[in-house]
TrEMBL record:
PANTHER family assigned to the protein according to its UniProt record, in alphabetical order: MUCOSA ASSOCIATED LYMPHOID TISSUE LYMPHOMA TRANSLOCATION PROTEIN 1/PARACASPASE, MUCOSA-ASSOCIATED LYMPHOID TISSUE LYMPHOMA TRANSLOCATION PROTEIN 1
Domain Caspase family p20: 42-175
Stated name of the protein: Caspase family protein
UniProt superkingdom: Bacteria
Length: 473
């Protein structure tokens, strides 16, 4: 909308004010709109490809077994799986096209997974999957003898559904003979730009080989097979777990990456429904063996199944305890203690609802608010750049007692050192020597009580040289 200002007229100012008000209301409503969760009933389809028997490149030991393992796991999770092995270029292209048509037939709510195990390459910033009949002697051969990952992602996106998951356990070892000109320049897949409706996961980054594994499966596929069966884990959290397990299993020699433009929440295994307030209160009463909590449960939720169990406990105890214990601040403290252990917004909400005027309620409300804010920041939230981003990083580092400098908006040595220390407080991987939104979001989710003041001093320093300056742990 374009607004022209005329001298001696107040109407343009009024129009601008109204415009800003309505924009603010719209932004507020958009921020409060809940993200959609893919229902458990959504159709699930998968294409699993394992390429091992290469004719002209180094053959691989494990992709076939890895593909069998993932196909089995996906079937158990309700996916309709098509399993292919040792595919040539023409067959791989046809497999992808047939899979896209299958997704379309299942409708816009379908969830698709395309898993590939085998050789993969990167050339001039483009990622490729290598069919078993590929004859690649020089860099110029790659585009005509391999399948572009970007093209696969675009084809999946064209199916019109909301969630497509492309998993690439590629770049296994070096496909070329020793001494070949391409031997070291093409390893690994580079992180890709977003493709709408696609979540792309790679076993390793550019310049790195993904381990094929020496126990029948690659480290990446083993971690993936375990992680996708965890109940209540969102798609993004599943791959965070995979990344952590692979990093540890390979002594940090292999770091997986993901790229996503998915807007809905997807669970391989749906989370259990949150416990009701009466169930949470019964759990707190049972854990603490506090009669006052059992009585509070009967009083607040008299018709619940939990209240019936509480009455039974009270009848057994009244012979030994004649006095009725009041539901006082100590009772609130015990429910709060349990909420701190559980660390869910619902657990803290219970404290605030049962003891609204107690000091514990104030802490519980603040804790629930922080957890919900962290959950929003994890997947959405605002983005910051430049000095503003650095200032916010410094504020978070100060909150966690990890910052020894003065907030300046400059990415200086104390900020780098603080990010390095804070990276030890979380399993989330971020680049501690750069100011990034990933670092800010990871810091936001760390409780101040778990900050750097609780860290033990390292036995020996670990240093990294950046711009001729050493930064040590």
């Amino acid at each position: 909308m374009r607004i022209t200002f005329f001298r001696h007229s107040v109407w343009p100012l009024v129009s601008l004010t109204l415009l800003l008000v309505f924009q603010g209301l719209a932004a507020g409503l958009a921020a409060e709109a809940p993200r959609k969760t893919v229902p458990a009933s959504a159709p699930r389809v998968a294409l699993v490809i394992g390429n091992a028997a290469y004719a002209r490149l180094r053959p691989l030991e494990n992709p076939g077994k890895d593909a069998d393992l993932i196909a089995d796991r996906l079937r158990k999770l309700g996916f309709e799986v098509t399993l292919k092995a040792n595919r040539e270029l023409k067959a791989m292209s046809e497999d992808v096209e047939a899979f896209v048509q299958a997704i379309k037939q299942h409708g816009p709510d379908a969830v698709s997974v395309l898993y590939y195990a085998g050789h993969g390459l990167e050339s001039d910033g483009i990622n490729y999957l290598v069919p078993v009949d590929a004859e690649i002697k020089r860099k110029a051969d790659i585009a005509g003898h391999a399948v572009s990952v970007k093209r696969i992602a675009d084809r999946l996106s064209s199916a019109g559904n909301r969630v497509n998951i492309l998993i690439l356990d590629a770049c296994r070892d070096n496909p070329f003979p020793e001494g070949a000109a391409t031997a070291n320049a093409l390893l690994g897949l580079v992180p890709m730009g977003a493709v709408y409706g696609a979540f792309i996961a790679s076993a390793t980054g550019s310049g790195k080989a993904a381990f094929d594994g020496d126990n029948g499966h690659s480290p990446y596929t083993l971690a993936l097979a375990q992680a996708i069966g965890a109940p209540g884990e969102k798609l993004e959290d599943v791959f965070k777990s995979v990344r952590r397990q692979v990093r540890l299993a390979t002594a940090e020699q292999q770091i997986p990456w993901e790229s996503t433009s998915i807007e809905a929440d997807f669970y391989f295994v749906q989370p259990a429904p949150p416990p009701s307030p009466s169930a949470q209160l019964l759990a707190a009463a049972t854990e603490t063996d506090n009669l006052a909590l059992f009585e509070l449960l009967v009083d607040r939720f008299p018709g619940s199944e939990e209240a019936a169990r509480a009455r039974s406990v009270l009848q057994q105890r009244r012979a030994a305890s004649a006095d009725r214990a009041p539901a006082n601040v100590s009772t609130a403290a015990e429910v709060l203690t349990r909420a701190r252990k559980v660390r869910t917004p619902d657990a803290f909400d219970l404290v605030a609802s049962l003891f609204p005027d107690s000091p514990e309620a104030a802490e519980a409300r603040a804790a629930a608010s922080r957890l919900r804010e962290a959950a929003v920041l994890d997947s959405a939230g605002p983005t910051f750049e430049g000095r503003e981003l650095i200032s916010r990083l410094q504020d978070e580092l100060a909150r966690l007692a990890c910052f020894g400098g003065q907030p300046s908006g400059m990415f200086d040595a104390p900020t780098v050192g603080g990010l390095r220390r804070a990276s030890q407080l979380t399993d989330e991987h971020y680049l501690w020597y750069r100011p990034t939104m990933a670092a800010l979001r990871a810091l936001k989710k760390i409780d101040a009580r778990d900050g750097c003041s609780r860290q033990k001093a390292a036995a020996s320093p670990r240093c990294l040289r950046i711009n001729n300056e050493d930064f040590c742990q």
